[in-house]
Structure formats: structure tokens, C-alpha cells
């Protein structure tokens, strides 16, 4: 997360794509069959396809709903994207689609959304899995960080939108090489960024850097699993300090890999996930 700065019965597979025309700020890819539904939220500028291998592991026993947020990876952008509104709209989706107490799995930005969702709508959620995310990213460098009422996002907008396509591509290649150890995954992740709306990227990034859930997560009532990349081992006290209000949370650190743990430490990741879910 920190590197963003900058069975015994026949398997029935259901596949459906819910379009943004239903007034949700995301599309949804549904697959799988079974009890304990799971909603999977991708990270910054990523497609819901980041969860394809995870869904393959889970869909025999779970209905899986992989979201693709508006403005990211080719999904039509909103005029005013807002993380807090995304939280509200995911809750509305759960209620309107009558999804019974889903497990929420979120990576990076998606992990922030998972915490926020479980804090604001504890009656809707059964469990959360936070993958390489923190309640307050800027507090890593400034523990006394406080959110601004109206943050100035102009510098982010100018930075994200001013670059030529080739410059932006090269920047994303360099960034992703530092975030995923599995080199076969770098180009697909970069292409998701290239097909993302840069204004959305700028505004959401600015909002993320103005988000502090350290106190809010005390309202989370469900079990929580937090899976972190190895580099967080070096600052465990800071990380665990941020999570001190997430009562009963299990924090585990991967032995290898980078930010995209689901790619870089698959066996460990899937074992942790299945043990927690089951």
C-alpha cells in the first residue's frame, strides 16, 4: 500500500456482468455457487480481474462478486468520484441485491473500502479481509496526521493529467515493477492503469491520502483478517498501532513478495484466506 505514494456436488458456475446503468459506481462480475457470498474489491486503478485466481480458489463453495470501480480499467468514469460514496453504494448494492452478510475482501484501496464499509454498515458484513492496506496511509510518515475538510487535489490532477501517454506508461511500468514480484503480472496491471480515467485516479488518490480510519474502525464488529507484505515487518509497531482499534483482528505478514500478495505469495495467501473464511 505504501508504495502507491505516487466438492462433493457438481459445480454450477454463474457468470453475470452488472452494468453501471443500474446506477452503481462499479460493474460486477458474478461467478460461483454456494453459501457465504464474497465481495472482492480491487486496488487503485485495478480491474476486478486482479481477483481471477482468488475467485478460482473460492467459487466452488461461494458466490463471488468481483467489483470494478468507476473510472478504473475501462469502466465509465463518474464526474465526481468519491471513496465515501463508493462505500455507500456498495452497501446499497448489498441491500438491494439481498446479498446475505457477505465477506468483503479488499486489496490496497479496496482494503480501505472494506474497513470503511464494515465500520459504517456493521449489520451487513460477516467478515473482512484486508490485503496490504492500512487505516491511514499518510500516518506512516506523520503519525499525527489529521484530515483536511476540503483537500486541494489540484496538484494531483495536474500531475496525473499533464503527462503524455508514453510518459504515463513508463511511470506505471517503473511503479508496478516495485509493487509486484511476479513479472508476468506487471504489464496487465499497467494496462489497467492505461485504461483508467486519469482524473478519477487523481481525485481518488488525493482522497486516499486524506483518509484516516484509525478511530472509525473501532465500530467494526465482525472478524477481520489483515494480510501484509513482508516490508511491513520492519515497522510492525507503526502498523499494529494503526490497527489497535480493530479489535480481535488477525494480522499476518507474508514471507516474500511485494504489494500484490495474491500474486506473489499465492499458496500462503490462499491458505490464510480459506482458513479464515471457513
Written account of the structure:
With 278 residues, the chain is α/β, with parallel strands linked by helices. The chain has one domain: Alpha/Beta hydrolase fold, catalytic domain (Rossmann fold, 3-Layer(aba) Sandwich), CATH 3.40.50.1820. The chain is 35% helix and 14% strand. The protein has 10 helices and 8 strands. The chain has helices spanning 52-58, 83-96, 109-120, 154-162, 165-177, 186-194, 198-208, 236-242, 261-264, 266-277; strands at 16-18, 26-32, 38-41, 63-69, 103-107, 127-131, 224-228, 250-253. An 8-stranded mixed sheet has the order 1-2-4-3-5-6-7-8, sandwiched between helices. Helix 8 (236-242) links the parallel strand 7 (224-228) and strand 8 (250-253). Helix 2 crosses helix 3 (109-120), helix 4 runs antiparallel to helix 7 (198-208) and helix 5 (165-177) runs antiparallel to helix 6. It is globular and about 45 Å long.
Can you give me a brief rundown of this structure?
The chain has 278 residues and is an alpha/beta fold. The chain has helices at 52-58, 83-96, 109-120, 154-162, 165-177, 186-194, 198-208, 236-242, 261-264, 266-277; strands at 16-18, 26-32, 38-41, 63-69, 103-107, 127-131, 224-228, 250-253. The longest helix has 14 residues, at 83-96.
Amino acid at each position: 500500500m505504501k508504495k502507491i505514494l505516487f466438492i462433493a456436488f457438481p459445480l454450477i458456475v454463474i457468470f453475470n456482468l452488472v452494468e453501471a446503468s443500474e446506477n452503481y459506481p462499479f460493474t460486477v462480475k458474478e461467478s460461483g455457487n454456494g453459501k457465504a457470498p464474497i465481495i472482492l474489491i480491487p486496488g487503485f486503478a485495478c480491474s476486478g480481474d486482479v481477483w481471477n485466481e482468488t475467485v478460482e480458489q473460492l467459487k466452488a463453495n461461494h458466490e463471488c462478486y468481483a467489483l470494478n470501480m468507476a473510472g478504473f480499467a475501462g469502466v465509465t468514469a463518474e464526474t465526481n468520484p468519491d471513496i465515501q460514496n463508493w462505500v455507500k453504494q456498495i452497501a446499497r448494492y448489498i441491500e438491494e441485491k439481498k446479498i446475505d452478510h457477505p465477506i468483503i475482501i479488499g486489496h490496497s484501496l479496496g482494503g480501505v473500502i472494506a474497513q470503511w464499509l464494515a465500520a459504517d454498515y456493521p449489520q451487513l458484513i460477516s467478515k473482512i479481509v484486508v490485503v496490504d492496506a492500512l487505516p491511514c496511509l499518510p500516518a506512516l510518515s506523520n503519525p499525527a496526521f489529521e484530515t483536511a475538510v476540503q483537500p486541494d487535489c489540484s496538484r494531483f490532477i495536474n500531475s496525473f493529467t499533464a503527462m503524455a501517454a508514453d510518459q504515463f506508461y513508463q511511470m506505471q511500468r517503473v511503479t508496478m515493477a516495485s509493487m509486484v514480484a511476479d513479472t508476468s503480472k506487471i504489464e496487465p496491471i499497467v494496462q489497467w492503469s492505461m485504461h483508467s480515467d486519469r482524473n478519477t485516479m487523481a481525485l481518488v488518490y488525493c482522497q486516499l491520502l486524506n483518509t484516516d480510519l484509525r478511530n472509525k474502525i473501532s465500530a467494526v464488529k465482525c472478524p477481520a483478517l489483515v494480510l501484509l507484505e513482508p516490508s511491513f515487518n520492519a515497522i510492525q509497531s507503526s502498523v499494529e498501532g494503526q490497527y489497535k482499534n480493530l479489535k480481535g483482528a488477525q494480522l499476518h505478514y507474508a514471507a516474500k513478495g511485494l504489494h500484490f500478495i495474491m500474486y506473489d505469495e499465492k499458496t500462503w495467501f490462499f491458505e490464510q484466506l480459506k482458513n479464515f473464511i471457513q
